[in-house]
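Run: sequence + pyridoxal-5'-phosphate -> complex structure.
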Amino acid sequence: MKETSIRAGELQFAYAKKYFEEFLSSRPRLKEKIMEVETPSLLMDLDGVKSRYVQIKYHLPEVNVYYAVKANDHIDVLRALSEVGSGFEVASIQELERVLSLGVPSEKIISSNPVKPEEFVAFAYEKGVNRFAVDSYAEVDKIARVAPRARVYVRIVVPNEGSEWPLSRKFGVDEETALSLLEYAKEKGLVPIGVTFHVGSQCNNLRNWFIAIRNSSRLWERARGRGLRLQVLNMGGGIPVRYVQESLKIEDIAYYVRGLLRKYFPTPPYELQMEPGRGIVGDQGVLVAKVIGKAGRGDEMWLYVDTGVFNGLAEALGGIRYPVYVEREGELKEWVIGGVSCDSMDVIAKRVYLPEPEVGDRIYFLSAGAYTTVYASEFNGFPKPKITAL
Ligand SMILES: *Cc1c(COP(=O)(O)O)cnc(C)c1O
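>> structure
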């Protein structure tokens, strides 16, 4: 191993160790569980989830938070958030039913996926959900068909540079199209209420919020010029959490966003919204797995674990790098971490520095609270991680 990679490896392992120890020392209830739970299991800290919500509200008191349920739809997570007053952003009948089962009023639920199944829109409207995103004429037609008089907000395209999980190719329209969609919605009997955007998931680039808010304000003014009085600015998700690297802090994003709002929305919208998913649950969960094998392959050393990209760690394929920790000491070695299935794509991480574990040791994937269990399948007959939420 080259000298520089050893030093990088030492830093990497020290960071993971510190993260792991801090996570548990502030969460004594999870301490025993982490040694007891069957593997693979996702251990979620519900107080931590609540405090992330409270933290966002503290720094952005004028913003209504609608938690994006797709990030982690476990019922205990949703209940914890409803207890502290969160709203919810849903995209499917199942997500909506789950949120409604907790007694959340329909006024606290919105649906911002720009292209929705018609059955879902009809079901949601019947349950009292009345706010839907659009970014196409076909969607306006659909909503007008099954949810007449519903309120709609238009999704504009914004840069997603520096976001780990860009979303802007799939959704969003330019200003001209946005304007004409809002007018078209009105013609169709719907109520055009606002603008939305998504800066990209795990967004570590403040500039994306700048462009998005500036462009929203331009659209807002042009809509006013055409007699449309918009009321809602929905700033989507994108709040990042730490993985192998630190991320932007919520207080810094909030400070910056509030400055932009003062400048570009001097007369504040009637309602400001955000839809964080990852930013609320991402760093409040640890995926506990087990080492099931070791092997040398050429000059690489491989660790095999009882989870994988098909059972929860799908985002590893898109570049998310979870801090990985084992409770061993000794010389650090460089590992490739392979998932449990027979598929050659099932590789969780490369260049992970760990002391050598034994087969049977627990291995911890930190910051695994978002987009893990919700993605999991039982491919190759291996179970999805169980969830213990405390
Ligand atoms: C996925 C999604 C979110 C949440 O995004 P995060 O990056 O996890 O905060 C918010 N809004 C919409 C419309 C989404 O599709």
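>> summary
The longest helix spans residues 3-25. The first strand starts at residue 41 and ends at 44.
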